Amino acid sequence: MKLLYLNEHLSCLNYQMNSDVGFTCQQLEKEEVYRIDNSKSSCTLFMIEGDVIFDLGKYKGLRILQKEMVFIPQSIETRIKSMTGSKCILLFWDRNVSVCDKLFLGSLPVRDEERTADNFILPIRKPLVKVLDSVGAYLEAKLLCKHMHLLKQQELLLVLKGFYTKKELAAFFSTSTGIRRHFEKFVIENYKKVSSVKEFADLYYVSERSFSRKFHSCFGESPYKWMQKKKAEQMLEMVCDLELSFQEISSKLGFSSPSHFTAYCRRMYGMSPTQLREKNKK
Question: Which of 64, 115, 204, 262 is the 20 to 30 A CA-CA neighbour of 238?
Answer without folding.
Answer: 204
